[in-house]
Q: What sequence folds into this?
């Protein structure tokens, strides 16, 4: 009987910890650090670190529409990308908007760019830029990317723009 009371107490404390609201200022700072870390990993051509930023079921959709699912596949994708001319390129990203869906789930909107990439013949490629939408989840002691969607049809967010026909 004492064990059951102890178990209920422990389980109750765990569920309380999972539902505690995050301090939004601290959470936004941590999310900015997550994006900055992602960019730093790109700039080091560190495919393993990029894959490690994704949750266990995280996925990535690149501007061509290719879907890459899971951290290992993301690592493999970036390994291939760096071997095909992106090693030595420079990435940049902004985090322009954060919307908390729950205390541990956030939608991120921002811009990204890559300069200094080369094609298979070693010729410099034009800069790439666009916007991204990401879903980030807080697990353990850090934020992970659960979904990242990059696109190039827009190059900046326009907050509050009226819909276009």
A:
């Amino acid at each position: 009987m004492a064990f059951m009371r102890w178990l209920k107490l422990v389980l109750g404390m765990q569920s309380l910890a999972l539902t505690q609201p995050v301090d939004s200022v601290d959470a936004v700072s941590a999310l900015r650090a997550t994006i900055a870390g992602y960019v730093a990993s790109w700039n080091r051509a560190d495919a393993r670190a990029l894959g490690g930023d994704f949750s266990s079921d995280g996925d990535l959709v690149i501007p061509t529409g290719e879907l890459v699912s899971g951290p290992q596949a993301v690592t493999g994708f970036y390994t291939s990308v760096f071997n095909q001319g992106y090693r030595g390129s420079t990435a940049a990203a902004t985090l322009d908007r954060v919307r908390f869906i729950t205390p541990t789930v956030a939608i991120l909107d921002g811009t990204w760019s890559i300069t200094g990439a080369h094609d298979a013949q070693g010729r410099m490629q034009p800069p790439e830029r666009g916007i991204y939408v990401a879903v980030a989840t807080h697990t353990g002691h850090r934020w992970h990317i659960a979904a990242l969607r990059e696109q190039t049809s827009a190059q900046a967010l326009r907050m509050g723009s009226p819909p276009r026909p």
